[in-house]
Amino acid sequence: MAITISRDKSARGLLKEVQEISGVDLSQCYQCKKCTSGCPVSSLARCSPSEMMRRLHLGLGEELLASDILWMCVSCETCSTRCPMGIDVAAVMDALRKLAVRRGAAKGEGNVPLFNRAFLKTVQVFGRTYDLAMIAGYKLGSGKLLADTEKFPTMLRKRKIALLPPHGADRQAVRRIFKKTREDGAAQ
Amino acid sequence: MDQSTRTVAEKLGIQLIEPKGWTCCGATAGHQTDRLLAAALPAATLVKVQDMGLELVVNCAACYNRMKAANHEIAGDPQVRAGVADALGRDYDGSVEVRHLLEVLLNDVGTDAIEKALHQSLRGLKVACYYGCLLVRPSEVTGFDDPENPSSLDRLVTVLGGTALEWPHKTECCGGGLSMSRTDVVVNLTDAIVGMAKLAGAECIAVSCPMCQINLDMRQLDIAKSKGNRYDLPVLYLTQLLGLCLGVAPQRLGLNKLMISPAKVLQAVAAA
Ligand code: SF4
Ligand code: SF4
Fold first, then answer.
1. Which of residues 11-50 of A touch B (CB under 8 A)?
2. Is residue A119 part of a domain?
3. Which domain-ending residue is among A66, A84, A103?
4. With bands split at pLDDT 50, 70 and 90, how would you rate the model's confidence at B246?
């Protein structure tokens, strides 16, 4: 792999921040690439998990947050399970995603953060997922109004998607959680 | 899924009690967004279960993973525990036992009791058992089966009279969490899994997670459209296969909801 190192001001910040958010000691990584071998999306993405680790070591900054793998990673935890050094690589991905959203670097790859927001919004409001509201929120935001629509009639007929919002959930408890975790400035 | 789980539990004498007011675990969206949120959302349900003095049985691999991970984080990190206590308005110690339905079936009910309750057999139907990623990973958190080559679902299928196939994609991720937001990625992942099952000679895929089921079932339509690969492999949740063998009618197992027709499986069972 060829890695270009830039020397912008933000370069130093990322490694430390990623370590803080994820609780992972990145210096443990010795680049065996076992994480990458098992990663189901590394062949589809431009940058693999072990490369992300190396780039962090080398002090790369903001450009890491624009890596396409962040929004292709399926959080399957294969990398974390297989790393011989016990590094939670998936937690590093979570940390990078969080930084990307926080710093607005995720705009170009907006669909996953958008989906996450739509998903969590329905949980925040209803206490459980409510597919119709979530799908509506996601589709309006993503502009992908027609994706998968050919399946909707069948899915509704087969009752795979409920028409009515869920009831019975302890909505109060969930709202409190969202309020509290957001107060800490962490949740989006 | 829900329907088949309840029906099968009743048949086997497992009493399932729904925790009143249970809420969503936050799933992938939760932990991709915030660590504390990801621990507090499952904890809201876990304290309810603790108050009831019960264990939690989960039939979804993703919820199972999130519940287990929350317990792990809360019990292992005082800071997370304090943060969660603040968010919930009460302390939770991370001690509620969380188990997947498959564990309960194999360890508590036991294969002998299941075998005795059977009315039908899968009659050698070739089944690829698919565990997905989150049930077995990370193994120090879930502690469920062998993380690389699990066998618990294979054991259940064998008890039902099916032929559990050896195949390499038992724990490859199907990308369920990104199914809507990165359909492009997910079509590739599901194509690899279903294609491998077909190559191994499978007549059906058995799964232990409803998310995997929807994804592997429904995305076969997209795979056919965008890649021209037609597999027509029915994907059944474990209690649907088990229910059929217990003599439950297919409608009561939600089999009519599948996108890929389970006709081949029904034929095998009916031939008995
Ligand atoms: S498996 Fe672990 S040690 Fe090996 S490259 Fe990946 S993160 Fe580094
Ligand atoms: S969690 Fe993400 S980075 Fe790790 S193996 Fe899975 S897809 Fe790859």
1. 21, 40-41, 44
2. yes
3. A103
4. very high
Q: Read off the pLDDT band of A134 (50, 70, 90).
A: low
Q: How far is B62 from chain A (nearest CA, A)?
A: 10
Reported ipTM exceeds the 0.95 cut: no
For residue A91, the CA-to-ligand 2 centroid distance in Å is: 10
What's the confidence (pLDDT) of residue B146?
80
Peptide bond into B210 cis (omega under 30): no
Give the right CATH number for B110-270 from 3.40.720.10, 3.30.70.20, 3.50.50.60, 3.40.50.11810: 3.40.50.11810
> Residues near B271 by Cβ (< 8 Å), separated by ≥ 6?
B123
pLDDT band at B232 (very low <50, low <70, confident <90, very high): very high
Instruction: Answer whether B52's CB lies under 8 Å from B19's CB.
Output: yes
Tell me the percentage of chain B whose pLDDT exceeds 90: 38
User: Which residues of A, range 85-124, sit inside 8 Å of B by Cβ?
Assistant: 88, 94, 97-98, 101, 111-112, 114-117, 119-120, 123
CB contact under 8 A, B40 and A181: yes
**Residues with Cβ < 8 Å from A49, sequence gap 6 or more?**
A35, A36, A39, A42, A69, A73, A79, A89, A92, A93
At residue B50, the 3 state secondary structure works out as helix
For A76, how many CA atoms within 13 A lie in the half-sphere containing its CB? Answer: 29
- pLDDT value at residue B241: 93
* Residue A1, in any domain of the structure: no
What distance lies between CA A24 and its chain's CA centroid?
17
- Residue B167 contacts residue B128 (beta carbons within 8 Å): yes
What's the CA gap between B225 and A9, in Å, rounded? 47
**Which atom of ligand 1 has the smallest separation from the CA of A33?**
5
Number of domains in chain A: 2
Measured between CA atoms, how close is A185 to chain B, in angstroms?
10
Instruction: Report the C-alpha gap between A119 and A129 in whole angstroms.
Output: 7
pLDDT value, residue A188: 39
